[in-house]
Structures are given as structure tokens and as C-alpha cells.
């Protein structure tokens, strides 16, 4: 990094340079710079939703793509997502006031018996980065926790994660219980985790298996879009 870059003063950059600079800062996981950039754009009269989409989501899309292509790895993505979260924290109350369109809502959690959460956290952050509202239930969730959260939050999507071959079957317990209660079709169910694969996802009745966080975001968008289209036709 050159001295010139160190001396970069964000507030002196015009919008058309500040936004790409924020993409770079997000990529590098620079939390304070992202907070500063968001505040500068707000002061300049940018709509919160425009900052979210053009500065933050667009930046996270680059991060997601490079993660998918193996250029970035989990630690870097977590840093970027953390910086994104800091920017989101400033925008969230403003977005609520302005009634900005939301992509959708997701409840996500690791299943009972499983205490792994890096993959799940990554999906949560990337989903937030794509404009979804995410309710994270944490780890070791029994079926009751999922059902209560679905009832309480009324999300579009339920995401379940497992990292152990021994906890994978619990995903089927949750889906089967949803079927018994007649609520399975009310939600898009996405599953993920290292030991899973496409066949397993289909066998337990999930809507989709997400190989990684970038795939989860793409798939979530696709399913939400499909739902909107069906409703429009219906």
C-alpha cells in the first residue's frame, strides 16, 4: 500500500470515486472506512436504499463472486461481511423509516446436535449483504425452535445448516414436522453444510441444496423471484 493511498480522504472524493473506493474497502474488510463512507453519502443526500444497493450490496457481490471462484477465502469474506454489517447498522433504522423494498426474509440456524456456525454465519452475512432480512437462531436448534421462529417471524425462507454426518438427518425431522403441520409449502427450505449434497437435499424434501454462501444467495433470489411471479400469475 502506498503512502498516497494511506492519505486518502474519503470525504474529498466525488461520488463516482467514493463508491468504487467503498467497494475496495469492503473487499479489504475495512469496517471504519465503510462506516465513514456510508455517513458521507448520507450527508450528501443519498437515499439509504441507494447506498445499500450501490455501495454495499454491489461491493459484497464482488466479494461473493471471488469467494465462489476461490480467489477469496472464508476469513476474508467474514471480514468483508463484518464491514458490511457495520454499514448496515447505520442504514437499518433509516431503511425502516423510508420503507425500502426488501428482498425477503430468512430464518437460519444450525440443527440440533451441531455447534458449527462459520458456514451459517457466512450465509447470514452474505444474505444481509444481498438485501435480505436475516434472523439467525444460532446453533443446536431442535425442531421446536425452528417452528417457533417460523411462526414468530413469518419468513420467506428457512435455512438449515449441518456440518456433521450425524446431524444431517435432523434436517429431515424438521421438514417432516413441517409437512405434518401442513406448513411445508409456506416456506422455501434451503439446506447447506460440508457433508451434504444435491441428492441428500432432494431426498429430505428441501427446495435447494447450497454448496456455499454465494450459491445460497443466488438460489434465494431465484426462489423469491419465482414466488413473486407465481403470485402475480395466480
UniProtKB/TrEMBL annotation:
It comes from the Bacteria. GO terms for molecular function: cobalamin binding; metal ion binding; methionine synthase activity. GO terms for biological process: homocysteine metabolic process; methylation; tetrahydrofolate metabolic process. Keywords: Cobalt, Metal-binding, Methyltransferase, Transferase. GO terms for cellular component: cytosol. Residues 103-234 form the B12-binding domain. Gene3D superfamilies: Cobalamin-binding domain, Methionine synthase domain. Residues 9-103 form the B12-binding N-terminal domain. This is 5-methyltetrahydrofolate--homocysteine methyltransferase.
Amino acid at each position: 500500500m502506498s503512502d498516497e493511498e494511506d492519505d486518502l480522504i474519503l470525504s474529498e472524493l466525488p461520488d463516482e470515486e467514493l463508491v468504487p473506493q467503498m467497494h475496495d474497502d469492503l473487499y479489504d474488510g475495512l469496517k471504519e472506512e465503510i462506516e465513514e463512507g456510508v455517513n458521507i453519502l448520507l450527508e450528501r443526500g443519498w437515499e439509504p436504499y441507494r447506498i445499500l444497493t450501490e455501495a454495499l450490496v454491489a461491493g459484497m457481490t464482488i466479494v461473493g463472486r471471488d469467494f465462489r471462484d476461490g480467489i477469496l477465502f472464508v476469513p476474508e469474506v467474514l471480514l468483508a461481511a463484518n464491514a458490511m454489517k457495520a454499514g448496515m447498522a447505520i442504514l437499518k433504522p433509516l431503511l425502516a423509516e423510508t420503507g425500502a423494498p426488501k428482498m425477503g426474509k430468512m430464518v437460519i440456524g444450525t440443527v440440533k446436535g451441531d455447534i458449527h456456525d462459520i458456514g451459517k454465519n457466512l450465509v447470514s452475512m452474505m444474505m444481509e449483504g444481498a438485501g435480505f432480512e436475516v434472523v439467525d437462531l444460532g446453533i443446536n436448534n431442535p425442531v421446536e425452535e425452528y417452528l417457533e421462529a417460523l411462526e414468530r417471524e413469518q419468513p420467506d425462507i428457512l435455512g438449515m445448516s449441518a456440518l456433521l454426518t450425524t446431524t444431517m438427518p435432523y434436517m429431515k425431522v424438521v421438514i417432516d414436522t413441517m409437512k405434518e403441520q401442513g406448513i411445508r409449502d409456506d416456506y422455501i427450505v434451503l439446506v447447506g453444510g460440508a457433508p451434504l449434497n444435491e441428492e441428500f437435499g432432494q431426498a429430505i424434501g428441501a427446495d435447494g441444496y447450497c454448496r456455499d454462501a454465494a450459491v445460497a444467495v443466488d438460489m434465494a433470489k431465484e426462489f423469491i423471484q419465482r414466488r413473486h411471479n407465481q403470485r402475480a400469475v395466480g
